[in-house]
Amino acid sequence: MRPIMRFASMVFASGLLPLACSAQSALERRITSAGDTPAQFRFAAREGVCGNGKTFFRTEDDGWYGTFYSNDGMRNDPCVNGPVRVVVTRAGKEVVRVETYVGPVPADAPAAQDLGVVSAKDAVAFLLGVAASSDGKPARDALTPAMLADSSVVTPTLLQIAKDQSRSRDIRRSAISWLSRRRDEKGGVGAAGIARALDQLVRDRNESETIRNQALSTIGRFDRGEGIPALMGFAGDADKWLSKQAFNTLSRSGDPRARQFVREQIKRADLDEEIRIEAIRGIGDDYATSADMKLLRDLYATVNSDRERDAILSSVANAGGSVNADWLLDIARSKTEPAQRRRRALSLLSKYDDARVKEALKGLINP
User: Fold this and answer.
1) CA angle in degrees (0–180, nearest 5) for 238-207-258
2) Residue 51: what are its φ and ψ, rounded to 5°?
3) Spatial CB neighbours of 320, under 8 Å, sequence gap ≥ 6
4) What percent of the chain has pLDDT over 90?
């Protein structure tokens, strides 16, 4: 079976969780009473959460977990709406495994003590408690079902984790990602509050670049495009690292505002070399148009460094097409271009699967 994308879950620190309390909840007591026998419970899922009950489930924003396709490329089973089923395995006092399923309970499911249906609120409180008090994989795995629960409020805790510099980078990055996906949560931090918090993380020079970049990328992926103006602001920041990362994200965006911004900025004579190279590479990426390629070809004669010219050559070559091939052939034939750059153009052209280009190359290599 072919695995599909998995999303990382996160570990919660006990000091951050208002839901995790010292007294055992009724659900926790019932799970504890099962001893080392796995215990399972079910609760209501968020709207749009579905699965086949055994090998895969889907979150409401099209995030897939598990194995969705069989060897023949066909979907194994229909995706059935909720509920969420969690199987908890303990060894003595410790939770050693947390498994998440969505959909009907399969007839061949491994034996477990069935605790039946519990409220989503109680389930989230228990799961976040496990995440708070456990280490490693059990703690991470306890988070995912909490994110799937109906009417659960998780963004306040996610925000605390995202800002807590004592937590690992992986956990904080995951928290930042989930914050974006839960921006519209009722009773939570709210979209505006999350946007402000991510902006603060991006601008905080005391933060690790990994966290800053995760926050910046998350802003760029806001599903309604409201993060684009913020990225434009970052691109003009005096912080060179931040400006470069913002240009990187904007140039790879399909948003028309981002594309036009990069087209205008890339022609600036005073633009930093490293930033221009990032913009050149990005603007020639997946969303590149023929107009973008003309912009890069026209830019070639005006840039100030061999690195910038090489980035243009690579982007134009990657785009393909007869116009770009002819331009590269002109570079390769030029009597004024340095030999190294002519060889670079020849190398890029050698990858073209075009009979006309191949014939032209023969003439250049064997005049």
Assistant:
1) 50
2) -175, 180
3) 352
4) 54
- pLDDT tens track for 21-41: 445 789 999 999 999 999 999
Mention every residue, 6+ apart, whose C-beta is less than 8 A from residue 107. none
CB 57 within 8 A of CB 45: no
Q: Read off the pLDDT of residues 139-173 as tens digits, 9 standing for 90 and up.
A: 788 888 988 999 888 888 888 878 988 877 877 88
Q: Tokens standing for 327?
A: 């331009």
Q: What is the domain partition of the chain in residue ranges?
A: 1-151
Residue 12's φ and ψ, nearest 5 degrees, are: -105, 135
The residue to which tokens 């050698």 are assigned = 350
What is the C-alpha separation between 203 and 28, in angstroms, rounded?
Answer: 41
C-alpha–C-alpha distance, residues 154 and 188, integer Å: 7
CB-based contact 122:27 (threshold 8 Å): yes
Amino acid at 209: E
- How many CB atoms are located within 10 Å of the residue 13 CB? 18
Measured CA to CA, the distance from residue 74 to residue 19 in angstroms comes to: 41
Which residue in this structure is represented by tokens 């009724």? 26
Give the dihedral sign, CA 231/236/237/241: positive
Is 70 exceeded by the pLDDT of residue 202? yes
The residues, any chain, with a CB within 8 Å of residue 100's CB and separated by 6 or more, are 57, 65, 84, 85, 86, 141, 144, 145, 148
